[in-house]
Design brief:
Layout (H helix, E strand, L loop, with lengths): L2 E3 L2 E4 L3 H13 L5 E5 L9 H4 L1 H4 L5 H4 L10 E5 L3 E5 L4 E4 L4 E3 L2 E4 L3 E3 L9 E3 L3 H13 L2 E5 L3 H11 L4 E5 L12 H13 L3 E3 L4 E7 L2 E6 L4 E4 L1 E4 L3 E3 L2 H5 L4 E2 L1 E3 L11 E3 L4 E5 L4 E4 L3 H15 L12 E6 L2 E7 L6 E8 L3 E8 L2 E8 L5 H9 L16
Parallel strand pairs: 1-7, 2-3, 2-8, 3-4, 8-21, 10-17, 11-12, 11-17, 12-13, 20-22
Antiparallel strand pairs: 5-6, 6-7, 9-18, 14-15, 15-16, 19-20, 22-23, 24-25, 25-28, 26-27, 27-28
Helix pairs in contact: 1-9
């Protein structure tokens, strides 16, 4: 057992941790920083796992890891180690090798873990990190019929990417149409057609209840009595925040680790950022935990600056999302929820346009479908207060 001491201890191996380290180094060039991560590599951009690494033969694992942008020499990394106990009274964290890490300021950027099925099988892949990608590559080489469980960002992107490989993906999801909890019905139906045109079978309105092994393949079982054979299955059902460390230490946890505008938890020397942190979103008037790379980067940068004593930090980030699949892509800001009032403004049928999400005539979210670089305009509409009439939004944002 060894004891390590640092001014700033960063627990986590994702982009929130990376952004915090770089923000600290910008303000304190000689800052004493320790990165403690259960990942085997330095932080990297996870979206590449669902897209480029699968579809682009020129992409390599090394190309997505940020080794090309090394940290300052005063940043020490302890990789392949999990933080197992946090003791705020002694300002220390114990890792899985028994070492003690003492700190003055701590950032919990522990992210989340993929949701799993109660009946877990070796053939069921959860998809979150480079180890999962390596397992996926092995499976692709061995089998072709792939069950993708879920129609969120990860499920939709993986299914699209696998269709470009020598695979036959099919998607099982609980909604009537693809992502109909986020998009208006017209767009969800259009996505159904797009995915089917790429030979992706859709099995809507079903929840997976278990996985059964049957010889060299598996059987995916659904709540409607469905039984679907596949060579392997990938779970893209979302994540649960990694908050056990925070809860064990007595920090306030409500969905995620509750933080204030300076990204402090209920303990003033412990900060949180990324998928595991719940912050107040002024434009949405609620605390919310977000699972997206842009949010993690913004929170990490703000937390790093706040940890160095930057009193100007008042985190107020409106959710920004982006994704792409096939020749489609979008940027979205705010509350993308199909249960809200919706105004659709299509400029090219369902191939290009803007979808506005309103509550009591206030714009709560904007989906920019195949329109890029307009998020500032979307944000301004959200800040302008109630609109006189929803139809007045037509042509407010154009390509």
């Amino acid at each position: 057992m060894k004891t390590h001491a640092s001014t700033y201890l960063i627990v986590g191996g994702g982009v929130a941790a990376d952004a915090a380290i770089r923000a600290i180094c910008e303000r304190e060039t000689d800052a004493d920083i320790v990165l403690l991560s259960d990942e085997s590599s330095l932080p990297y951009h996870r979206p590449a796992l669902c897209k480029d690494l699968i579809t682009d033969p020129n992409q390599t694992i090394a190309s997505v890891i940020k080794d090309s942008e090394p940290y300052e020499s005063n940043v020490r990394s302890y990789l392949g180690r999990r933080a197992i106990r946090l003791e705020p009274e002694s300002s220390s964290v114990v890792d899985s090798q028994g070492d003690i890490h003492r700190y003055k300021k701590l950032l919990l950027a522990t992210g989340g873990s993929p949701l799993e099925l109660p009946d877990h099988s070796e053939q069921l892949l959860t998809y979150r990190n480079l180890s999962d990608y390596k397992r996926l590559e092995e499976k692709i080489a061995m089998g072709h019929r792939v069950a993708v469980i879920g129609d969120g960002f990860i499920g939709s992107e993986i299914a699209a990417s696998l269709s470009e490989r020598n695979c036959e993906p099919f998607m099982i999801f609980p909604h009537d149409h693809l992502a109909s909890n986020r998009y208006p019905e017209s767009l969800s139906r259009h996505l159904d057609d797009v995915y089917c045109s790429h030979k992706i079978d859709l099995l809507p309105g079903q929840r997976v209840t278990g996985i059964e092994s049957s010889g060299d393949f598996l059987v995916v079982v659904t709540d409607g009595g469905g039984r679907y054979a596949a060579d392997f299955a990938i779970a893209g059902m979302g994540i649960k925040p990694n908050v056990d460390l925070a809860r064990q230490a007595g920090l306030v946890v409500k969905d995620g680790i509750r933080v204030n505008a300076q990204l402090q938890s209920s303990h003033p020397n412990i900060y949180a950022a990324g998928d595991n942190a719940s912050a107040y979103r002024k434009e949405l008037d609620r605390y919310e935990r977000l699972e997206h790379e842009m949010n993690a980067i913004e929170m990490g940068q703000a937390a790093g600056r706040a940890m160095t004593g930057d009193r100007s930090i008042s985190f107020d980030y409106t959710p920004l999302f982006y994704s792409d699949f096939f020749d489609l892509g979008f940027e979205a800001i705010g509350d993308i929820d199909s249960s809200l009032d919706i105004v659709e403004d299509w400029q090219d049928d369902l191939n290009q346009g803007v979808v506005y999400y309103l509550y009591q005539n206030n714009v709560r979210g904007v989906l920019l479908w195949n329109i890029f670089g307009k998020t500032d305009e979307a944000r301004a509409l959200m800040q302008n207060g109630p609109v006189t009439h929803p139809t007045s939004l037509k042509q407010k944002i154009t390509a």
